[in-house]
Write a structure and sequence with these properties.
single chain; alpha/beta; Aspartate Aminotransferase, domain 2; Aspartate Aminotransferase, domain 1; 2 domains; seven-stranded mixed sheet; five-stranded mixed sheet; binds pyridoxal-5'-phosphate
Length: 388
Amino acid sequence: MKDNRFETNAIRDQLERTQYLEHSAPMFLTSSYVFEDAEDMRASFAEEKDRNVYSRYSNPNTSEFITKVCHMEGAEAGFAFASGMAAVFSTFAALLESGDHILSVRSVFGSTHSLYTNFFPKWNIETSFFGIDELEKVEQSIRSNTKILYAESPTNPGVDILDLEYLGKLAKKHDLIFVVDNCFASPYLQQPIKFGADLVIHSGTKLMDGQGRVLAGITVGQADLVDKIYRFSRITGPALSPFNAWVLSKSLETLAVRVDRHCENALKLAEFLEGHRKVNWVKYPFLKSHPQYELAQKQMKAGGCVVAFEVKGGLESGRKFFDSIRLLSLSANLGDARSIVTHPASTTHSKLTPEERKAVGISEGMVRVSVGLEHSADIIDDIGQALG
Ligand SMILES: *Cc1c(COP(=O)(O)O)cnc(C)c1O
């Protein structure tokens, strides 16, 4: 593949044209594919040929989407899933054995946390956690059975930044598989493989689609690891649908321009909230007051679409704030063209105990804003009037 720049690859990494010479890639809504003859049938099933056999294994639209994301992330291979959680679960399930141990940052996506605590123990897979300010303790928490080191940066919902290069070096030294959920950054803002990640996971549902239409997930990275994930997934069936893959591949054509505007709007909102008399604190990776501002500048191209802040007056003021919002959506999604306000304590992180919430920095008055693509002044006006 010719190595053009990010924006160009996002548009030009495209399927070969069919006999109709279409300009934009068509949709291949087919569950299976035909064989030329008996020998083709045998060779295809024996995997002697790189070709489509059945859409649970591969499909042209899914392949186009995977190719684009691999190119963006600098990855060797990938597999696309029906949702981000299907990607997270299948990655763990394909790589872990009973008795293995996961070492993970504590502030992970709520459903990932739920996998660790409610499901993996059934298969004798134990997880231990480190806080974002406890990186020096990570090395001593590595056990002889530790297999995966798992990180998210920026974290959800507190937008803390983890030193990926530091963790990447630790993983290499101790022969761990370093997995990074890069969903909050998108491949446009951050490529964890550069910092030593072996695998990168995305929920395509967020910035990748960016318009709140489809669920999707993808894992990309080192070819031998992706092959294990592929072997597991072609049997268990979490594959992305060709229709959603087509939507996603189109969405990636505009990822760079969209994410640039998301970040511009988010920074403006963060600056507005900083020092607002009704706000205790605001956190945004590219705000100078962010505790890991320097690190964010090193790892990311811009700060992302999520701004976190705390309304003064705790739960009661928080409720009033949400009830006063007029333009923005009250929803649990993020990375959408429409700006979204979320109350993590009662939604995305409601399954955690209050102690667990406290440990990952979620207070009752905390608000997460996924800043969208409306005019920044309208977003700021709405949040300003709701704060009162
Ligand atoms: C949304 C999200 C997921 C899960 O993705 P789904 O597409 O909702 O299954 C995983 N990790 C992060 C950081 C997310 O924001």
